[in-house]
Amino acid sequence: MTLPALQNTSVFFRRILAQFPQDISLAFAYGSGVFRQAGTTQGQMGKNMLDFVFAVDDPITWHTMNLIENRKHYSFLKFFGPKQISSIQNDYGAGVYYNTLVPSDERLIKYGVISTDALIDDLLHWKTLYVAGRLHKPVRILLQGENGKLRAALVANLKSAVNASFLMLPESFSEEDLFLQIAGLSYSGDFRMVIGEDKSKISNIVKDNIQHFRILYNDILQECPQVVYKPQQGRLEVDKSPEGQFTQLMALPRTLQQQITRLVDPPGKNRDVEEILLQVAQDPDCGLVVQQGIYSIVKTSSITQSAKGIVTAGLMKTVSYSTKKLRKMWKGWRRKTP
To answer: What pLDDT score does 35 carry?
Structure first.
């Protein structure tokens, strides 16, 4: 099963992709420059920066080639060479190296580079929920190789998003409720939602893209034994019994299970994960515990990745990028103010 995103790549996106080394296992575009968001006109969308992520099997080789082809994209770190750049990519933050505010085909783009192995790890285990969280939402797939492990991990990530959201929702809810919950997973705990992001961001993402979310999650919802899905009515009913919640908790990614264990289990008790999750499944605040676990994962990765971004982007670009974000946040606030 392939990731059911928008597979058709326009000439415009192919032209941008052709400017980079081609040893890429997965390339996708995401964000407000690719998918229209509520409150944004077509003209404004055309001015928004385009966001990309490239997964590569060998970051050192890829950065070596990219430094030859696109040296100007890099900050002062280019003087340290591809090995050091790859080390900064892999060892700090969320395992992604971003070059931002790059002019390309009369648009500004930002692109992140992540190793294929690190991406698979995040998709399966939610180690940082950074790139995995972006892939909970509709993206435009530009290139996807034949890596079977990566394809399976992409689908597993969507299933995990559904499971985690079920645990935080009531017994009966709408499709929009589910998609809002899913879209919000990777923003829970993100300090940029306090300063730097439009507070309506999550609802803006979902509101004009319900159909894209349906395409992404339809097969998973139809096949999931834990839910009754009524697509005609746009309603869902999930099993909220302790047994049902225990099944969902056991299916959560490993890092989230570990975070839940830390929250619930007193120091020194050292009970096994299954025993703790069984206790959480019977707790009326089960959803809250799951939410706190996700919060702690996202909070750490968002802070460390943003700190790394100052170095990878350079000071001037960081100030410029942050100013654009704050301006966007201000516009969103003004739209909501009567």
So the answer is: 87
Task: Identify the burial level of 306 via C-beta atoms within 10 angstroms of its C-beta, where 0-12 means exposed, 13-18 middle and 19 or more buried.
Answer: middle
In the chain, beta strands by DSSP E: 26-30, 50-56, 96-104, 107-115, 140-144, 172-174, 227-230, 235-238
pLDDT at site 286: 97
Give which of 35, 32, 15, 36 is closest to 105, Cα–Cα: 15
Cross-strand partners of 144: 26
Question: Which portions of the chain are predicted below pLDDT 70?
Answer: 1-9, 39, 42, 190-199, 314-338
In sequence order, what are the residues at sequence separation of 6 or more whose Cβ sits closer than 8 angstroms to the Cβ of residue 108? 49, 50, 101, 102
What is the structure's pLDDT at 333? 42
> 151: which residues sit within 8 A by CB, 6+ positions away?
1, 2, 3, 144
3-state percent helix, strand, coil for the chain, nearest multiple of 5: 55, 15, 30
CB-CB contact of 327 with 195 (8 Å): no
Handedness of CA 40, 157, 255, 110 (dihedral sign): negative
Is residue 97 within 8 Å of 130, Cβ to Cβ? Answer: no
Q: What's the rounded Cα separation, in Å, for the pair 23 and 38?
A: 35
Q: How far apart are CA 97 and CA 87, in angstroms?
A: 10
CA atoms of 137 and 31, how far apart (whole Å): 9
Q: DSSP letter at 74?
A: S
Residue 218 half-sphere exposure, CB side, CA atoms within 13 Å? 12
Would you state the pLDDT for residue 9?
A: 56
- What single letter denotes the amino acid at residue 294? I
Q: Which of 60, 67, 122, 117 is nearest to 87 (CA)?
A: 60
The predicted structure's pLDDT at residue 194: 54
Cα-to-chain-centroid distance, residue 309: 17
- Give 221: exposed, middle or buried? Use CB within 10 Å, 0-12, 13-18, 19+: middle
Prediction pTM value: 0.88
Please tell me the predicted confidence (pLDDT) of residue 316: 60
328: burial class by Cβ within 10 Å (0-12, 13-18, 19+)? Answer: middle
